[in-house]
Design a protein that fits this description.
alpha/beta; 13-stranded mixed beta sheet; 7-stranded parallel beta sheet; 30 helices; 41% helix; elongated
């Protein structure tokens, strides 16, 4: 009750403070028009392309430039460890966003501004991203984010955790509050033992906090690109010595650096200073100070090809994200933020380039790192600005001593690496243990919940009634079904089961309802490969027939269709398509498929989601197959969830393998690696259309347009012509779709663009064991 009261107090204060928040937004927008464009994302309205069909994403929040930079190697490890999961990164500042856009290209699938910590906004973002794990870098304790994430069942981790001296003083005053919030976090990986103790002091449970090291030791030094304007300027200017003054802070550090440079320039006429203020707001002021001091200089943003700098002179690095790549050219580095009481900045980046570093006395935010380096004589500490010129001058005058200090700094940094790898391992443990459930917006849930309850009650009654009427065919029946309404790969699985049975010498038949067919015949029993109108069979039976694998029985009465197959084609085993809920026909084996891309069928029983019955019904399954595992990293989490309700059923993993492109008009086949088009528009009507989109991405096909329709959609001629027109306008030379959709094209749907469908087949891991389990 105490915890609920604390959250109630927090949300009440938020409600009362909402006008102040609006005034703050207005103030920021007046001062910086660019801030206006950030407001939709801060209010939870993310780009549509971020929307996920099911759980499995990882959301990392890194508040600003320092956190983004520190997490690069961690993100690389997540990218390698979760190749099929979407990685999203949020940041709070404009500079952080610019840094993320520059440094995380190819690592993050989406970058956005962090949502304001209001419940409705946080829920909107969680529903959009559907993360399995939310990771917070360093220390961003937002109560509603933590609580709402926990309510979905997703995991929460704080990595590279630290609480600065300045923040600790403030946090201690609210220890009663953080003691209620921090237990929501599953794992806190602190930078040091000291930081671990601080989190414990604020109320984090001891078992959730461990000292795991500092991400900043894992920085991967990368030199500036060959086409970098700053690097080209250095190559043309050819300075004998380069001093970098990194991340300088107001009010006095730029003055100290400029004064020291003027002092050193007399002894080092070929000296080049690279001055890099920490904050963009200080760029113009730094330029004015260089001019007032009579220091020749160029600004990075004004550089043009062919520019050179007259030495001694300075390059003002008024850009974001370039500094770390230039450490490689430095002879000595002064780390700003250390002469003024700002807590210091990270000295590890220049150290990992084996550069000697000079710093001031204020390294409170990096106390452990500074202590390690000073103990190893791997840096120089000066007491005040007056000592800057002397310290820099000694290192410039003694290259051997400078190189030796750089080597010690490099060794010191290398010995403490590995925090990113340890954090990635913890994220893996959390990811594999969770299968979160994401609720709909409250108005939708309130409206649909009664209907979902009615659906479940009707399903239970129907199931009990059908069991009483159950009949058995005198041949083994293998059911392939699922819990959700379409979209799990049943059709390819039925075909693969039939193929495996034939390979073992059996004579299988396929039973299917024929969804959406229009026919005077209640039952159809057709030979393998038989040509029959699609509207009289339905789309999926057409795929079974075209495969030529087995005779097909079509009809709502699967018992009667099965008996006719037995009589007409002498089949000795029957494969029942979409049969998990069709209990009127007794079966010997129930195979249930779970889609790794959307294991919970949209999050609820129809109409809340696409589930036909609640997930615990998996207890009836004799075998479980997790499909589309190549597009998802969720298989271990799904297996864990299944085991909660069904500890006995053997589980297998499967994927859909593309086998070729087929021209829907004349049936001509093309190798999968040689698509007969250059630019194609894509469309489909599937239970889970993202499966087709992911497969196209894996094949390197980037559609010029993408259109989704409901499952089993029948394409009318006018509708198809409109679709073709859109693709032509977008420069397509073909249209691509699925085999089921190709079957559903209207006979009059003739297009000038060729239509190709992707032929796929299911591959099941441990197929011999799978078949043994079927055949008993």
């Amino acid at each position: 009750m105490k915890i609920k009261g604390i959250y109630l107090l927090y949300r009440t204060l938020q409600a009362l403070g909402s006008p102040l928040l609006l005034l703050y937004f207005a103030y920021r927008c007046v001062g910086d028009r660019g801030y206006w464009r950030t407001l939709p994302q801060r209010c939870g309205f993310l780009p549509r392309s971020f929307k996920q069909t099911g759980p499995g994403a990882i959301w990392l929040h890194a508040v600003s430039v320092g956190e983004i930079t520190g997490c690069v190697e961690f993100l690389r490890r997540l990218r390698a460890g979760f190749p099929n999961s979407r990685l999203f990164v949020s940041t709070s500042t404009l500079a952080g966003r610019a840094t993320a856009d520059d440094m995380l290209r190819g690592l993050a699938d989406g970058i956005f501004y962090a949502p304001v910590d209001y419940v409705c906004i946080v829920r909107r973002v969680l529903r959009m991203l559907k993360p399995s794990v939310v990771v917070i870098a360093e220390t961003e304790i937002w109560p509603n984010l933590l609580r709402e994430t926990r309510r979905t069942g997703a995991a929460i981790a704080i990595v590279n955790g630290r609480i600065s001296d300045r923040a600790l003083h403030r946090y201690r005053k609210f220890a009663w509050f953080f003691g209620a919030v921090l237990p929501e976090v599953d794992a806190i990986l602190a930078q040091s033992e000291e930081m671990r103790e601080r989190f414990g002091e604020l109320g984090a449970p001891a078992g959730q906090v461990r000292a795991s090291g500092n991400f900043k030791y894992d920085f991967e030094p990368r030199t500036a690109a060959a086409d970098s304007p700053a690097r080209k300027l250095i190559e043309r200017t050819k300075p004998e010595k380069i001093w970098i003054a990194a991340s300088t802070m107001p009010p006095d550090e730029d003055d100290a650096v400029i004064a020291a440079f003027r002092d050193l320039a007399g002894r080092h006429p070929k000296l080049m200073l690279i001055l890099a203020p920490r904050k963009p707001a200080a760029f113009d002021e730094a330029a004015a100070k260089l001019t007032a001091a009579g220091v020749r200089h160029l600004r990075r943003r004004n550089l043009r090809d062919g520019d050179t700098l007259e030495l001694p002179g300075a390059l003002l690095l008024d850009s974001i994200g370039e500094l770390s790549g230039l450490f490689s050219v430095a002879d000595v580095v002064f780390m700003g933020g250390t002469l003024v009481d700002r807590g210091g900045h990270n000295i590890l980046e220049p150290a990992l380039f084996a550069k000697p570093v000079v710093m001031g006395p204020h390294m409170e935010n990096f106390r452990a790192i500074a202590a390690d380096f000073l103990a190893e004589h791997a840096c120089v500490e000066i007491p005040n600005a007056e000592g800057l010129a002397d310290a820099i001058g000694k290192l410039l005058d003694s290259p051997e001593a400078a190189q030796e200090m750089g080597r010690r700094a490099y060794a010191c940094a290398q010995a403490r690496r590995g925090a990113s790898e340890r954090a990635a391992e913890v994220v893996r443990e959390l990811y594999d243990s969770r299968l979160p459930h994401f609720r709909h917006a409250l108005p939708i849930e309130a409206l649909t919940w009664p209907f979902a309850q009615a659906w479940m009650q009707g399903a239970r009654s129907r199931h009990a009634s059908d069991l009483r009427k159950q009949r058995r065919i005198d041949a083994p029946v293998i059911s392939v079904g699922n819990l959700s309404m379409g979209g799990t790969g049943k059709t390819p699985c039925v075909l693969r089961v039939a193929e495996l049975l034939k390979n073992r010498g059996k004579s299988p038949g396929i039973l299917t309802r024929g969804y959406g067919r229009v026919s005077p015949d209640k039952i159809l029993t057709l030979a393998p490969g038989a040509s029959f109108p699609a509207e009289r069979t339905g789309d999926e039976p057409q795929i079974f027939l075209r495969s030529g694998l087995a005779p097909v029985g079509i009809g709502a009465d699967r018992y009667e269709a099965g008996m006719q197959l037995r009589t007409k084609f002498h089949v000795d085993m029957l494969v029942l398509d979409d049969g998990f809920q069709h209990v009127r026909l007794a079966r010997d084996v129930d195979i249930v498929l779970i889609d790794a891309l959307d294991p919970l069928g949209g999050g609820g029983v129809f109409p809340l989601g696409r589930l036909r019955e609640p997930f615990p019904a998996i207890a009836r399954a004799d075998m479980v197959v997790i499909t589309r595992v190549r597009f998802s990293d969720l298989a271990p989490a799904i297996e864990r969830a299944v085991r909660r309700w069904n500890p006995r059923a053997p589980m297998f993993r499967a994927t859909l393998e593309p086998r070729g492109w087929v021209n829907s008009r004349d049936g001509t086949s093309y190798p999968i690696a040689e698509p007969p088009f250059r630019r194609a528009g894509a469309f489909c009507g599937l239970g889970n259309p993202q499966s087709f989109r992911r497969m196209l991405e894996r094949l390197g096909v980037a559609p010029v347009g993408w259109y989704e329709f409901e499952d089993h959609h029948r394409y009318r001629a006018h509708e198809f012509r409109r679709l073709e027109h859109h693709f032509v306008e977008q420069g397509a030379d073909a249209m691509v779709t699925t085999e089921k959709d190709a079957i559903n094209l209207h006979d009059d749907a003739r297009a000038s663009l060729p239509v190709y469908y992707l032929r796929v087949a299911m591959a099941i891991e441990r197929e011999e064991e799978f078949l043994d389990a079927i055949c008993g």
